[in-house]
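Hi team,

As requested, here is the filled-out complex form for the adenosine-5'-triphosphate run. I kept the field names the same as last time so the parser does not choke. Let me know if anything looks off before we queue the next batch.

— J.
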Amino acid sequence: MDEILRAEGISRIFEDGGLLGPKRIVRAVDDVSFSVYKGEVFVLAGESGSGKSTLANLILNPAEADSGKVFFGGRAVDGASDLKKVRMSCQMVHQDPYDSVNPGMKVADIVAEPLEIHGEGDKSYRKKRVLEALSEVRLEPPAEIAAKHPHMLSGGQRQRVALARALALKPGIIIADEPVSMLDVSIRAEMLELMSGLRKSHGITFLYITHDLATARHFGDRIAVMYSGKIVEEGPVDTVLLRPAHPYTQALIDAISEPDPGNLHREKIIRINDPPNDLRGGCSFRSRCPYAIDRCAEEPELEDAGGGRRVACFARLE
Ligand SMILES: Nc1ncnc2c1ncn2[C@@H]1O[C@H](COP(=O)(O)OP(=O)(O)OP(=O)(O)O)[C@@H](O)[C@H]1O
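And here is what came back:
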């Protein structure tokens, strides 16, 4: 399989607090490496605060990383001209359809904006491409929708406008950061089906960021589970979500599912809402982990566990 995107050792540290309380170092993204292959849906999953959005932003702005490199199509992104190419071939769809769409602009201008920013085609090409992109996200009739303002559309339609805008430049990869979490449950599946269709018809690769394992399973091929700035488990979606090897993945699954009498690990419920203790060094999940052993005071590496899976844990569940 062709690799389209690779992150290698990406880290980003923030300093938090300081005015009234003590300064706190937040390792928002901590030495993260992963590859995304052409045509797949790669999911980044984890609780709020695990570092997913920071990582997505670093992919588009590698210069803001404290360390690490981003590769597109095997080439390291280095310098302004590389960055321009990346910004054309990698587009982002954000969580909030109300936020990501400028209410003062007409749909036609919103979708055309990336074409204008990158100087793509003349006026007539842009007009044609806007109508095409609106059709691609099934906003029909496109000419009628193009003339509207966002407030005249439903939440689902607005998120489709955001997707059409991302498609305008015919990108190879779309980073979709919680694209359905603000939508009504009834229209989430529609939006995911639409993205699945685009992947098949246009060969678009997706990096899908979510805290929602149900949509991850529905839409994803492979998943990386993040905890506290690190990938703790990665592999095919069905393998990771049906037979989790990392106790944190198990905890995330337990948080959304009914107790399963067949689940060997059911007595060891981990309350994922417990705040992590700031234990120094070692596995950052160990203070919450019922399986923790002495060795967890060392930092576990993300190691090959067979079957396309990588796990960072000394006390794996299988
Ligand atoms: N600009 C910033 N300054 C200080 N801390 C930050 C900044 N941006 C993010 N953080 C911290 O980095 C950590 C990771 O945040 P991030 O938003 O990437 O997580 P997330 O998994 O995307 O969560 P969510 O789903 O809530 O957006 C959090 O502890 C957050 O508070």
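Two things worth flagging: The chain is about 30% helix and 25% strand. Residues 115 and 125 are 10 Å apart (CA to CA).

Thanks,
J.
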